[in-house]
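Handout, page 2. Input:
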Amino acid sequence: MPAARVARVIVDTPLPQLDRLFDYAIPERLADEAVPGVRVNVPLRTAGRLAGGYIVEVTDHADFEGDLSELESVVSAARVLTPSVATLARRIADRSAGSASDVLRLAVPPRMVRVEKAWLAAQHPRAEDADVIPVAERLPVRGYRDDLAASVDAAGRIAVDAVPRLARTGDGTWVGAWAVTMAELAARRLASGRSAILAVPDYRDLDQLQAALADAVETDAIARVDAGQSNPDRYRAFLRCLEPRPVVVIGNRSAVYAPAYRLGLIALWDDSDPLHVEPLAPYAHSRDVALVRAEAEGCGLAFVGHTRSIEVQRLVDLGWLTAHAPERAQSPRVVVTAAQAGEGAPSRVPAGAWRAAREGLDAGPVLVQVARPGYAPVVACAQCREAAHCSRCGGPLGQDRAGAAPSCRWCGAIATGWTCSNCGGTRVRLVSRGSSRTAEELGRAFPGVRVVVSDGERRVTAVDDRPALVVATRGAEPIATSGYRAVLLLDGERMLARESLNVAEDCLRWWSNAASLAAPGAPVVLVGVSGPLAQALATWRQPEYASAQLKDRRVLRFPPAVRVATVTGTPKAVGDAVAALDPQTVIDVLGPTPVDPHATTARQGSVSSDAVRAIVRFEYAHGAAVASALRSSIVRSATKGRKPRSDRGYRPPPTLRVRLDDPEVV
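Output:
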């Protein structure tokens, strides 16, 4: 009698100690259905119930020497987990001290039964022998030297400085020239019979990219994987990626995990945008996922942006990436004003900026970029001028509209009967201007001019070429037909006041992206900022600024010159985890220091009142060893005295949380 076949299954479970492959016997009734990549249900004794999972491989022998449990059922015949994605999930989990099942929740969307059944019934034949257009017959990428296209064709790794201007598609839609560049790179891959994955930060960028691709490839060759889609639409696009024919996958950060037939290119737009950071464990950045996947699958890799992230600049300095710039200098006309006297003073919009706005409005729309949405995001005590805080949770108070009572920006509580904890004052004053208040003031200054507000609450993606004042928060700037006739970059000092290691890099990116929306020759006025940062924008030499920043960080041993890991939890758990690290693999350990529970973000999860945090710095060469040691500490912490209470299956919060390469840790 032949030996029973064995399925090796990765189980979908939050328990870190179960992050491995489990062997299950394949019963005779499932012999034809139990194949690698399908969803299955399996008995899980530790949970006392059935658990979902995926078959990673089928073998003739088991690593486990005892009696094997049998697969309970095969959920579907669709092979939703490809071998390359399974390998990628394991590598990303190991690099990030996380679980492969957490990665797979990002890579494989929830099953939609009707969509899947329709897809299975209409499967396309395999396309290994499908006719393709040779790459030699394709045109080079417009605006760049021929070697950029050649580099990608040869599975090269490139950092592309985007052309800072707008372009018009065949149907009359205006998009950033960067979108056309990425579309042409993807079209070259598709013409050679290979797939491409294009990842962008948000829906605004995604809409531009899709419009640019419409001129380059057939609609059927595009699969949009977007978190904003309905679940059926997203699953339908995911299943299209599984088909054995080339595809261009576009989407946000999760798109880098998409299965793709003969993957030939991964391209990221604006990789320093924080939206590329996954807020769920194991918190992997799409740039790191792209680097790991490109190396594993031998495909081309492109990072495109108006500014170059310091992480990408490090790879350029190492020679791992090749830098490519446009053929001709096409930088915007940036004007840097003198430093403003203060946000409450008239110099928030100095005379030169007013003049540029007036002249621009004679020809079309004018963009005004501000730091924050809302009316008055921050208020202070009118008597002592200390920032006002919520009496309930300690969060900052703000005002949503003129005459409204202040409310908390954290818990939303209305601050009725507020009293200053510093001086006892009961009145507040406005100390900041959000998008709504700025629009109100500009409307009074330019009577009769149309005012458009675009921020997180008001979704505006495009404006026509009629005169208008467009007030937008950073990253929410609409695209204007033919470009803005003037661009005013306000609140520079306030943007730079944010406590973050990457604040200067972020500001340069926000300003550069806004400047790229200007019409040719239109002025871009940067208000209230001077020094090397302003000079980098004015001369359009962002790579040189990134290189200088990287040199400073090498001296200070700050990321990305080195890698960091944050270890958060109870004092004992953190102490044990740090003590378990091999001293030869770490540079130093900073802390532990107390963690403010009120300052903990939603993505970080709740922490105990006595929680502490330590920061571990280490070299890239020791990344695998440090991640493995920290992962072992997580498992030990999860298995020590952590039995769930009997009432409603309550399980206490974890005593140890680890995150690698947190961009906001320093």
